[in-house]
Amino acid sequence: MSRPSDHYDSPDPAASRAGVAPGDGAGDGSGGDIAQPRLGVVGWLRWFWRQLTSMRTALFLLLLLALAAVPGSLVPQRAADPNGVTQYFVDNPDLAPVLDKIQAFDVYTSVWFSSIYLLLFISLVGCVIPRAKHHFDALRAKPPRTPARLSRLAGFQKRTAEPGTNGAAAIESARALLRKQGYRAVVFTAPGANGSEVTSVSAERGYARETGNLVFHAALVGILITVGVGGGYGFSGQRVLVENGQTFVNTLSAFDSFNPGRFFSESSLTPYSMKLDKFTATYETKADGAFGQPLDYDAQVTTQERGQSDQQSDIKVNSPLRIGGTDVYLLGNGYAPTITVKDPSGTVVFTDSVPFLPQDASLTSVGVVKIPDGLADQLGMIGFFYPTQAVSTTGAFYSTYPDDDYPVLTLNVYDGDLGLNGGKPTSVYSLDTDTLTQLTGGTTGVKSIELKPGDTAQLPNGLGTISFDNVARYASLDIHHDPTQGFVLLFASLALLGLLISLFIPRRRVWVKATERADGTVTLEYAGLARGEDPRLVPAVAEIADRHAKLLSDRSTPESNA
Amino acid sequence: MPLTIDEYSVFFLYAAMAVYAAAFIAFALDLARRSAQVGAGNQVAVDGSVTTRERVLETVGARAGGSTTVASGSGSRGGVAATSATDGDAVTGASAGSTSGAKRSLSLRLGVGFTLIGFLLELTADVLRGIAASRVPWANMYEFSMTGTVLIVGVFLIVITRVDLRFLGTFITGLVLILLGISTVNYYVGVAPLPPALQSAWLVIHVFVASLGTAFFALGFALSGIQLLQYRRESITTGAKFLKLKFLASLPDSKRLENLAYRVNIVGFVFWTFTLIAGAVWAERAWGRYWGWDTKEVWTFIIWVIYAGYIHARATRGWRGSRSAVLAIIGFAAVLFNFGIVNVFFHGLHSYSGL
Ligand code: HEM
To answer: Where is the ResB-like domain (chain A) (predicted)?
Structure first.
């Protein structure tokens, strides 16, 4: 069978029902299930398979897939927005665990979503394979015999050929004409009513329509498989690089976070190194509605691949750097104030550029400094950085512009146990203040430490000094490796191509029949048959008839002159 | 103070809206006139031309004579041949009939004329906005509303030169007016430079093709909607008045409407497929992954799957006709939702509404 039995163009199963299976072809959903013959296991499997590969099931699964994709847009997803999920748990403490049980935060990898698309793709494969086989046969077969009566078919025309036309010759020229138009054409002869011969040509074109359809569906399978496999071999990792700071080397330990695919092995990391020389952000300076809007981010890096000399490149938002089998994307940026802490004797106990996380469009940023050793107490600090500081009427600080025109750093200092010794992993971006005592800022009555670049201040309780040396920029880079994404693009393009062919190339049959009458005249009949959507069939048949008439008269004119 | 280019653009946009409103009124009058003529027992063709009751009888006679000559020699089957010819391009058939002294509708011609003028004004507004911003005018909600509606009207004007769908004028101008009304009131933003994430050739391609797809889906939506009404009218026994929408009698039958809707929707679907792929390519360049189930990606996918369902429904026994039309309507509802709701209210990486 070429197409599922409930395809619109398949013979009506109600008419050809052989009682093979229960509910087969229950087109109207009623009746059908009376007096089923007993089925063995194989029979049931067969029946099940036919149900699964029917058009109606495919349609149902498609609609179900669309529906099942909706919840993932309503509830934050772990893969795309992990912070959103955490926030959702805070905001909806009762609902969130229930939703989590039904995998509402991982919709697109959930059991239920996966089962829908896997079933759909099984159905797809079950549908495509028999069709491909049938189509392969059809490609080698000849067009079918000319029907006895053409008059009921689309675009039917009957014309009388000019006197002296030979029926067989006329059909031969029709065949040539049709072949030129891309038809596969065969000539048939059959005995006519009064002992004469009826010659006809049966032609068919547009086999590509079905080919395109098969390519389209097969390409979808291709996409599914490559996406599945590619996810397994690839990885994605993040790394923050500060201007003129540390050099990144492409090894596991150098990533701040790393998500390997299932089949990832560390040996697939190609060694290379990368250093951020300079990060430039350009902002709108015109004082209209867009003041302060970013115009360009440019991370200038120096890279080195094994055995090669250094290379300078730029990484921009829409232009990643492709290096060593990985793609490096510029996903974020911010400020990293360089902070130095000294103990009362002047010994440096901490000095680093600490990346702060931007909180708003003017890049007010928050960061954490932890000093576990070297001072009398463990110190933790929560810092606020204002690139262009301003003071509101309430006395609060804020930033008016994202560039560092008037940078100010404020710090709230805490002492106590930083919790670093318990072996529990802690984020460098957060400070657990439960076990700490606040020494400055907030309700302590002691003013927060406030520094401009170059300033130094005393830490509370005579613990030492802190200085804000300068501001550096940092770039946060995503480093990805997906060996199959080229194939995904290839399959997607094939799908598009197949779609175009299958939707816009008409598949049609055309017949031309010549009947010689008793008086020697020849009648020519033309007709066509659409196979699938074919809005232009009738004009096409008419055009063939016109061209054929012209061919015949062109040919007969010189002959009569000679 | 002289007006800025953007202010000129807004001025042209308001002018376009005023002219679209006039077009809407003219198209609505045409439908009213059709209803009145049908109610008076006259025959109204798809192109709005009227054949009065006496003439109806005359032309029917003449046509019967005509069709026998077309299919000379095939006797009683001539009728069949003539019908299949009409099936293929019913519209040419209908307009051919109207040349024989039938009255063409002034309101319909005015409607098309106003639509064309409105289109030129809006196109000017759109181009000026692009000049003011020195980039393509489709980088925020206000701008896509403008470019999207220019494309809807443009596609409509092009399609009616090939197939007579002028009867959709009320719908098209009405839809465009609503969209423009919402967008000028709620989405207007001054000219702003592109943020780095949008600085890509893919903005030009991806968003433009998405808007073009939307324009075709809009036409398909209108046709499917009328198809459903027409189908109800056809299935109600003759004589019963349905919703007083008598003008339906002057429109193509539900089958023809279904075929037209399908032809328009598959064009939209191809553009949408391209949008999906181009979006993935762009996402790979900008965000480092080609697909991440971001809300906007999810909805683009949902729309694509719904229309794939529609195409399947057309090929599934028992689903052709009204059921598949309902799917096309749901599909377009999802398109509007994706544009109007997802862009503004849903969180995601695609935060480009400019609001
Ligand atoms: C991932 C799931 C699927 C998608 C997205 C999909 C999509 C499409 C699209 C867009 C078309 C129209 C273009 C063309 O003719 O090539 C189509 C046609 C078709 N599909 Fe699918 N399909 C899917 C699964 C299936 C399955 C499971 C079956 C078998 C039951 C199937 C059978 C068909 C058939 C027979 C047609 C031709 C329709 C016609 O004759 O007009 N498809 N499909």
So the answer is: 55-536
A436 touching B, CB under 8 A? no
* Cα–ligand 1 centroid distance for A39 (angstroms): 30
Ligand 1 atom 12: the closest Cα is on which residue? B311
- The predicted pLDDT at position A423 comes to 61
Instruction: Check residue A27 and give its pLDDT.
Output: 38
Residues of A in contact with B292 (CB under 8 A): 79-80
Q: In chain B, which residue's Cα lies nearest the Cα of A282? A: B196
Report the distance separating Cα B355 and Cα B352, nearest Å.
8
How many angstroms separate the CA atoms of B218 and A473, rounded? 48
* E strand residue ranges, chain B: 43-44, 50-51
Query: Which amino acid appears at position A548 of this protein?
Result: H
Predicted-complex ipTM score? 0.85
- How many CA atoms within 13 Å lie on the side-chain side of B187? 24
Inspect the interface and report whether the beta carbons of B305 and A65 lie closer than 8 Å.
yes
Q: What ligand 1 atom has the least distance to the C-alpha of B269? A: 10
Within-domain flag for B147: yes
Q: Which atom of ligand 1 is nearest to the CA of A498?
A: 16
Q: Domain A153-206+508-561 is in which class? A: alpha beta
User: In this complex, do A317 and B81 lie within 8 Å of one another by their Cβ atoms?
Assistant: no
Residue A277 CA to ligand 1 center (angstroms) comes to 52
Domains of chain A, by residue range, sit at 41-138, 153-206+508-561, 212-233+484-498, 235-481
- Domain count across chain B: 1
In this structure, of A89-103, A321-335, A496-510, B51-65, the range with the lowest mean pLDDT score is: B51-65
Domain coverage including residue B237: 108-345
What confidence score (pLDDT) does residue B75 get? 35
* SS3 labels along A459-478: CHHHCCEEEEEEEEEEEEEE
From the alpha carbon of A53, which atom of ligand 1 is closest? Answer: 30
Domain membership of residue B200 (yes or no) is yes
Q: Is A15 on the interface with B (CB under 8 A)?
A: no
pTM for the structure as a whole: 0.86
Domain presence at residue B37: no
With beta carbons less than 8 A apart as the criterion, state whether A470 and A336 touch. no
Per the structure block, which two tokens stand in for A101?
């049980």
